[in-house]
Specification:
Length: 303
């Protein structure tokens, strides 16, 4: 209880409690995450159980429209799938890819950044020039290139099975330079401080110095960057899926649902695309606003 009380009275929690935007964003993000994680329990239907689909229910409008039914609050799509349930299941895939890709980019960026900042010299120059070259290209183009190369290299029968992993790696590789440059800048500052020099004198290995002495001092900026990058990773996955090169139709994400609904957007069945799009906006916007608050809360100059 004492630890909870200290956490509740900490500067970070006080900043959170007194910032309405952060509270509302956290509530929206929590609803999105719980709805996605608990989709098998909370969703009214399993939209991907082919035995439960009925084409006679196709194109039912939302409940608030004429001829709508509360059995399908957000209506149904062209195959009779409940749109609300499809959004909840699709958000699971979007969150899985977003979190996994961010974690992969974070791990790769931290490794490269620590190595470049601590080693310096030619190692630093080579690694940072690679990062600079990659930063000159839009992330989505890098992800498309990696996804295309992976699909060409893998056997066709494995495409659907490995599609999620390919997308995670593609997005992660496209995002790692941001983390690497952040960690490298902090490592350059920390490597010449007294505690690092003392660790070298007593014979501690460079790897241990980087992990136990330098890395903890850059966790604050990394946490902020990872939070902001999560929203970008979710958007990148949605873009790839909308273009038809992301996750397979058997594991649709929010981007896939928007692409399917786009085919019927101008024929009057607008809810098939609009509701997944609103869910994507709510998820990404809430995460980004939390990242903005966290950046301000961890910056002592703004207190």
């Amino acid at each position: 209880m004492a630890a909870i009380a200290r956490l509740w009275n900490s500067d970070l929690f006080w900043s959170f409690r007194t910032t309405p935007t952060a509270v509302i964003s956290a509530a929206v993000a929590l609803v999105c995450i719980l709805g996605a994680v608990l989709a098998p329990v909370l969703a009214p239907y399993n939209p991907f159980d082919l035995a439960s689909l009925d084409l006679m229910d196709a194109f039912n409008p939302p409940a608030f429209m004429e001829e709508g039914s509360w059995a399908h609050p957000f209506g149904t799509d062209d195959q009779g799938r409940d749109v609300l349930s499809a959004i909840m299941y699709g958000a699971r895939v979007s969150l899985l890819v977003g979190v996994s890709a961010t974690a992969f980019a974070l791990a790769l960026g931290v490794l490269v950044g620590l190595l470049a900042g601590y080693a310096g010299g030619a190692v630093d120059a080579v690694l940072m020039r690679i990062a600079d070259i990659q930063l000159t290209f839009p992330n989505i183009l890098i992800a498309l290139l990696i996804d295309g190369v992976a699909r060409a290299a893998l056997p066709r029968e494995l495409h659907d099975q490995l599609a999620v992993y390919v997308v995670i790696v593609a997005i992660g590789i496209s995002e790692w330079p941001k983390f690497a440059r952040t960690v490298r800048g902090s490592a350059l500052v920390e490597r010449n401080k007294e505690y690092v020099l003392a660790a070298r004198v007593i014979g501690i290995s460079p790897a241990r110095i980087m992990l136990t002495h330098v890395l903890p001092n850059v966790l604050g900026p990394l946490l902020v960057l990872a939070t902001l990058n999560l929203g970008l990773a979710i958007l990148s996955e949605a873009t790839l899926s909308f273009l038809g090169v992301g996750v397979p139709p058997t594991q649709p994400s929010l981007g896939t649902l928007i692409r399917i609904g786009n085919d019927f957007l101008f024929s009057g069945e607008w809810w098939i695309a609009i509701f997944p799009g609103l869910a994507l906006v709510a998820m990404v916007l809430s995460v980004n606003l939390l990242g903005d608050w966290l950046r301000d809360a961890l910056n002592p100059r703004l207190r």
